[in-house]
Structure formats: C-alpha cells, structure tokens
Amino acid sequence: MTFTNLSTHSFTAHQCLHDVFGYTTFRGEQQAIVEHVVAGGDALVLMPTGGGKSLCYQLPALLRNGVGIVVSPLIALMQDQVDALQQLGVQAAFLNSSLSTHEASAITAQLMRGDLQILYVAPERLLMPSFLSLLEQIEHNIGIALFAIDEAHCVSQWGHDFRPEYRKLTVLHERFPQVPRIALTATADALTRVEIVERLKLEQARQFVSSFDRPNIQYRVTQKANARQQLEAFLEAEHANDAGIIYCLSRRKVEETADWLKSRGWDALPYHAGLDSSIRNANQRRFLREEGVIIVATIAFGMGIDKPNVRFVAHLDLPKSMEGYYQETGRAGRDGLPANAWMTYGLGDVVSMRKMLDSGDASEERKHVERQKLDALLGFCESTTCRHQTILRYFGEQHDGKCDQCDNCLTPVDTWDATQPAQMALSCVYRTGQRFGVVHLTDVLLGKTTPKVEQFRHHQLSTFGIGKAISPQQWSSVFRQLVAAGYLETDMDAFGGLRLSETSRPVLRGETEVWLRRDIEVSNRKVSKVERGARAKESYAELNNDPLWHALKAKRIELAKEQGVPPYVIFHDSTLLEMLNLRPGSLTEMGKISGVGQAKLTRYGDEFLQVLEEIANGVDRSSYF
Fold first, then answer.
1. Is the pLDDT of residue 90 over 50?
2. Domains in the chain, ordered, with CATH?
C-alpha cells in the first residue's frame, strides 16, 4: 500500500478539527491516528469511552476523497452520531432497518450522487451482496474514503458482545484492498485484541492503545445489605437532579426497581429486551433528550449510547466480567466531568452469576474463560488497593495506585488477620460435606440448634459453636471474601453450596495467612427531604444556584426540542460550563469556546450570547427553566 506524504495533511487536519468540530487541539493519540488513516494506513484503535474515538474516523473521512463508510451494530448509536454530525454541517446519513423503503432509497440516491461525506450502516446490510456491489460502484465513481468498524470487540467469541456477522467483515479487505480500515473499541483485553486482528485481517494495521484510565470516574463498591435503601441514600446524597443508569441482572428486578424509584419520586424508566419495542424506544428517547432521567436496565441497554452528561452508573448486581463492568461504568462522565461508578454486591450475586455461567449452552472452554473473567471482577470488588490501579492492571496498563478517586484511596481499607476464622470456615465446609450454603454454615459455627442442623446432626460436629466470637454479619463477610479469593467455590450441583478449592489446603495446614478487609457498617438511616435538597449537587461545580447555568441549559433544551434532537447534540455540558466561566461577549470570543465549531457558531452563537447578556444585565429568565 502506498502512503502519501503526511506533511500535506497536518495543517488541514487541525483546520478541520477547529472549523468543523470546534476544538483547538487533539487529545492523546488522536492526531497520530488521524494522520495515519488519512495517509491510507489501516489502524486498530483502543480508546476508553469518552476518549474521542469517533473523531478518529470522522475527521479522516472528511479529509480523504470519497465517502466514509462506518459499520455500527446499533441503531441508536447511528442516529446519535448522524444527528451530531449534521449539527456540525457534515453531510451524514445512516442505513438501517428503522428506515422505510422510500427513505432508504433516497439515502442510497444521495450516496450514488456523491452527496454524502459519512454513511453509517449495520453489518447485516453491508454484507448483503447487493450492497457490496453498490459499494464497488461507489468506489469506482466517487471513491470510498475509509471503512470504520466501530465496536470491533463484537468480533471476538471471548468478548462480552459477540456478534457472528462481524466475523464476515473480512470481505472489506478482500474486495476493497486499497481502502484503509480503522477498527475501534473501548473494551478489549489482550485475548480479545489478538482475535480482532486475526478475524479482521489487520495483521499489518498499526495499533494505537490509549490509556484505559478514566480519572474523572470515582469507583465505589459496598457490601450489599438493603440494596434499594443503599441506592436511594447514594442518589439523595449526590445525584438528586442527575441523569444516570442503574444496572440489574434480571428483567423482573429492572421493573421492580424502576417502579420502586418512581414511587419514591424519582424520574426512573425501565429498559430491557422483554419490553415492547415502542416502550423501549420511548424510554430511551426520554433518557437521551431530557434532563435528570434515570434508566434502570439490563445490559441490553447502553452500547453506543452517546449521552455525555450521565453523572452516575450504579450496579445493583454483579456484572459478568471486568470488560462488562468497565464498559458499563464508562457510560458515565463521557464529557470528562466528574462522575460516579457505584456498585453493591454480596455472596448471593456470586452464586447467581456462577449459576448463570455454568448453566449456559457454551462450550467448556468458553465457560472456563468466563469464570476467569468473573474471578477477576470479584478480585476487583474485594481489593484493598486502588481501584483504578486494579482495572488498569487487568488491561495490561500500569498505575501508581494513588488516584484519590475511589473508595479505597479516599478511605484506606482496614484489614484484619482472619487466618483463624478462615480455618474455622473452611473446616466447617469440609466437615458438613461441602454441600451447604452460608446461612447453614454460619448457624453451625454460631452453635444454633436449628431444625436443619439437627436433621443433619451437625450439632455433633467439632466445628459446632466454635465461631461464637464473630457476629453473623462478620461470618457472611468472611465467606464472601473466601469465595472471591478462590479458597471456596460455589457448587451449582449442590444448589450453590460451598466446597473447598485446592488453594484452601495451605490455609487449613497453617502454611498461609489470610488477611481480609473489615467491612464498613452499612447505615440504614433515611436521608430527609431537607437533607436531600441541601446535599444535592453537581460535583463538577456548585451550579444549582447559578441562574446563568440554568438559563444556558434552558436555551439548550429549547433549541433541542425545536430540532428534535437530544440537548447534548446542541452543546455538551462542558461547553456550557466554559461559556459560564469565560462569559464570551462576541461571536469571535464564542468561537474560541471548546465544542463551538463554525456551523454551531453560525446557528446558535447569537442565541447563547443573548442569554449571557440578559443574565449579566439582571434580566429574570427563571420562567424559562
């Protein structure tokens, strides 16, 4: 493949970055990626959610001759991206099943005339013989600038979003060998990266691996007591007016949680694959286009959601893997402003998730990999060190471990020598036959003569009553952490009973010490409405009492409703925040605000300048918000 001289593109790329996208500088490796693809090179890009992946293919598509073809797996993502590009003055469109035959024909005609700069297409449509033939005509008559394969981890059978049709995308390399390809993902461990390269024939592609760190996200994990009350206390204290996502494992729990939150006064909506598509789409639309809406969802919701001002992601149940957890929490704080990733979990989550993994139809090899991924996530939950460091280590990256943005760094973990209690617990598991759950094992250790204890004559065991010095809550913590550390395994054939692992032997023989984290006592105190109002805040700035902040957001909502697009398509929160801080007084000054390109300056500049002027002159705009 022949590469052109990069020097002819450098200035043009910067000019396009500023005039179209409204940014003055590239972030991270964006510039290197753009220049490489503009020159005709293939690329594999790993960049965290919110790191600016889309610009890495959108900008080269505008700089190269022809139309950029973007392969995307989700209709919602296509719609969002096209809305945003059209706001920037870019000729963009999508082809997917949401369009009528007439609408699809009109877009195809635009494509044939060369009136499109970027086209998003689903992999199923791209792989149709008729569409591939159409692309060959486009390449001959107009030119194809590039192929971008978004969410490239979908190609991997080891990934968490495997899609078989992605494996057929090697046809792009075979039929269009001169067109550069750029594959992008925010989530891929070493095994998945290898498979992406192999399956997409990207052996000669240059790999760009950005840092996986999201320093603006604060990670917190708490032991599960009363999950709903814990969740509401978290929301009341920190996110009373914010948009966020709450993940649950089951459809039933999604609906029950959403109903409960609504009964408590929260604007919460359910989302899962079992809902009627019209309800699902309406709920997603409200989440994207309104302020302060909370979505309660299964993992069916989220991939490709481009809402930048999600201020929190909460997990009421354990995800399946570190990749899943990282991708789901990465939907918070895409605008780079502070956000929270909050999770509560307990041993019941471990049992449920392992039961789900073991009962599936996957091969034993696949199940083995999934168990390893789950174990890595359990290690993260029970870690006593920096959570940012633990996440990055999983993805093969180093971190100094002093983030000041996780519970373990902000409140150093209190650990205790649990060697003797661990030996008691392991011995009790062994002597009761390695087939009982935590509740029964704890009753034996505490010396409780329950009907079940008497039925199995466990009151006659040497471990009966030896653990009376430890509370039931502490024993629950001990068992949970022994499972997470791999000393105990859940036996699905015994309905989630516990059994010893090989690693437990050195502990029982006294050859290994066991240190566990001391759980913080969970408070069930209800936060009053007065406290809720007083403590509610947007953590990146004290803005709730600033009339200009509300006026800018109100203007954004007004314009978004007029055009039928989500508010963040007009401007991100970070752009409004810069307006508030810099108070531009002219179009020239407004044009220097990050995120205000030429098209948006022309379209919205005067309207936002008017808001700034009116607030500066003391005009009361409270009726507008």
1. yes
2. 7-209 (3.40.50.300), 217-410 (3.40.50.300), 415-517 (1.10.10.10), 541-624 (1.10.150.80)
Give the residue-averaged pLDDT of 593-607: 91
Tell which wins on pLDDT, 9 or 16.
16
Tokens representing 255? 């609906």
Burial class (CB in 10 A: 0-12, 13-18, 19+), 372: exposed
The conformational region for residue 588 under phi > 0 = left, psi -120 to 50 = alpha, else beta, is: alpha
Please write the tens of the pLDDT for every residue from 547-566. Answer: 888 899 999 999 998 988 88
Q: How far apart are CA 246 and CA 252, in angstroms?
A: 14
Asked if pLDDT for residue 621 goes beyond 70, the answer is: no
Ordered DSSP codes for 63-92: HSSSEEEEE-S-HHHHHHHHHHHHHTT--E
**Contact in structure between 598 and 20 (CB atoms under 8 Å):** yes
For 365, the token pair is 């090899």
Q: Give the whole-angstrom CA distance, residue 322 versus residue 394.
A: 8
pTM of the predicted model, to two decimals? 0.71
64 band by pLDDT with thresholds 50, 70 and 90? very high
Token digits for 484?
Answer: 């997470």
| Gap between the Cα atoms of 266 and 253, Å rounded | 17
pLDDT tens readout for residues 452-498:
999 999 999 999 999 999 999 889 889 988 887 778 887 755 556 88
Cα 529 to Cα 83, 236, 246, 265, 293, distances in angstroms:
39, 9, 22, 11, 19
Kind of pairing, strands 118-121 and 339-345?
unpaired
Indicate the Cα dihedral angle 96, 98, 99, 104, nearest 10°: 10
Report the pLDDT averaged over residues 77-102.
90
Q: What is the DSSP string of 193-228?
A: HHHHHHHTT-TTSEEEE-----TTEEEEEEE-SSHH
The amino acid occupying position 212 is F
Looking at the predicted structure, is the pLDDT value of residue 363 above 60? yes
Mark residue 153 as left, alpha or beta (left: phi above 0; alpha: psi -120 to 50; beta: remaining).
alpha
Q: Are 88 and 597 in contact (CB under 8 A)?
A: yes
Letter string b/e over residues 329-358, b meaning 16 or more CB atoms within 10 A of that residue's CB: bbbbbbbbbbbbbbbbbbbebbbbbbeebe
CB 140 within 8 A of CB 171: no
Distance CA 562, CA 567 (A): 10
Alpha-helical (H) ranges within 142-296 are 171-175, 190-199, 227-238, 251-263, 277-289
